Amino acid sequence: MNADDLRALQAPLKERYRAEPGAARVTLHAEGELDSASIACKVETGRALAVAGLHPATGGDGLELCSGDMLLEALVACAGVTLKAVATAMGVTLRSGRVTAEGDLDFRGTLGVAKEAPVGFSDIRLTFELDTDAPQDQLDSLLKLTERYCVVLQTLKRPPTIEARITRV
Hints:
By secondary structure, the chain is an alpha+beta fold. Helices cover 39% and strands 21% of the residues. The strands form two sheets. Strands 1-2-3-4 form a four-stranded mixed β-sheet. A hairpin with a 5-residue loop joins strand 1 (32-34) and strand 2 (40-44). The radius of gyration is 20 Å and the shape is globular.
């Protein structure tokens, strides 16, 4: 896909969203089923079943997915797709590329061992390794725009209001 193809694909969507701002608001949905036999949650991804369990640092056996890894994987996926779309729109040729995310966790917080230890990631590093001849100013713009338009990255940087509740069935 080139920049013209991308613009042609997105133009009617952008026009509709300008005319009808409410049409741009979409609610995404995820659902999981608690495993009755183990400490795990089965999440239907639309393509496959993902079974998340405890990280080995919290007592897991490592056979199930760690939700922290899944968060980083979602960031990598979103940032990678966003970077490709922005590069395409800018006309930046990428021969190849790699996206990595690393996050630091202190499992003392998760396990309730130390109240001062945070629960969750304290730091996340997102890195793009690109094989390209684009000049540095274009790469700087590419990074800036990728950061601006990556849904997962922006959600992590500016967390939404989250409500948690339990209901009986």
